[in-house]
Amino acid sequence: MKHWIEAARLRTLPLSVSGIIVGSIYALSNPTETINTPTEVFSWKVFGFALLTTLGLQVLSNFANDYGDGVKGTDNADRVGPQRAIQSGVITPQAMKKAIIITSFLTLLSAIILIYFAFGKDNFGYSIFFLLLGIAAIVAAIKYTVGNSAYGYRGLGDLFVFIFFGLVSTLGVNFLYAKEVDPLLILPAVAIGLLSVGVLNLNNMRDQESDKKAGKNTIVVQMGAEKAKFYHYALIGGAMLLVIIFAILSDYNFDQYLFVLAYIPLTKHLITVYKNQDPKLLDPELKKLALSTFLLSILLTVCMISLISDIIVNLFLGGR
Fold first, then answer.
1. Rounded distance, CA 76 to CA 64, Å?
2. Cα separation, 165 vs 177, whole angstroms
3. How far is CA 169 from CA 196, 247, 290, in A?
4. What pTM value is reported for the model?
5. How many helices and strands in the chain, by DSSP H and E?
6. How far apart are CA 196 and CA 235, in angstroms?
7. pLDDT tens digit string along 69-95?
8. How far apart are CA 74 and CA 53, in angstroms?
9. For all residues of the chain together, what is the average pLDDT?
10. Which CATH architecture does the domain made up of 1-307 adopt?
11. Domain residue spans of the chain
């Protein structure tokens, strides 16, 4: 059990739910024209299964990454980060493959239940669309490093992380509640996507030399270490700027800018990356950046809600 927990890479899980939290609380704090109260918009069932589905996708991605890089030999003695399960031999490729199949099934089941709670027997078109989206997310989680056509080996990992853990996570879950897309929510959705890509970029900066030797042609391998740093600054700095713009366009009061507290660890992280000369020392920054993104999502959602105590009371008394 200890080895399976390590293979699930718990430090990546807070990052994966950041978009779910922001998209959900935005729905709670912004009732639509047809749904006028927070308790009509928000559903604990949708929220719970959205979290469960996203966590399933993240764990599936981690299992598949361990398997794909393990059987390809990418995870070897040259790798800087902690040893993976297959690399160290504590889990066999056959056992990991079975775990991938089981996790895929459970994640798809969770997605189907989520879709049912969101749309019920109505909105058949939406249900089919989100079912296909869920299947696409599962395939994307597996194909990152698994197979001869693994897109992570062609420098496309950043794009898929941005789409699924930024746009789909934030805008998708919000649509499950509101049944419409709010253009303003695109700003924090893109910001979370950029921060998620930042975590992947940091991982690839750490593993640049071993990835290059193994033929894993990540964006960092393609552009080199120095340009990868500037790319990283753009990802994190761009995310911070977008959230500020979101707050301004949302007409936030001064006390609603509490989320800028998360900019302190993010700024410290950027300084650390700027000064770094040894890729091995970037490994602790992965957890710090993931937790900073999670902190930003929590603080931002608190800032989204006016009269938060009344809304929470209503949810517990009348929420679904």
1. 16
2. 18
3. 11, 20, 16
4. 0.89
5. 17, 0
6. 9
7. 888 777 666 666 667 788 878 889 899
8. 28
9. 88
10. Orthogonal Bundle (1.10)
11. 1-307
Residues of the chain above pLDDT 90, percent: 57
Question: Which amino acid type is present at position 277?
Answer: Q
Which tokens belong to 32?
Answer: 């639509």
**Exposure of 246 in the CB half-sphere (CA atoms within 13 A):** 28
**What's the angle, vertex CA 131, arms to CA 165 and CA 4, rounded to 5?**
55
Written as one letter, the residue type at 284 is P
Closest to 157 (Cα-Cα) out of 108, 91, 110, 202: 202
DSSP states along 63-132: HHHHHHHHHHT-SSTT--SPPPHHHHTSS-HHHHHHHHHHHHHHHHHHHHHHHHHHHTTS-HHHHHHHHH
Residues 186-204 have a mean pLDDT of 95
DSSP string across 157-198: HHHHHHIIIIIIIIIIHHHHHHSS--GGGHHHHHHHHHHHHH
Alpha carbon distance 29, 256 (integer Å): 13
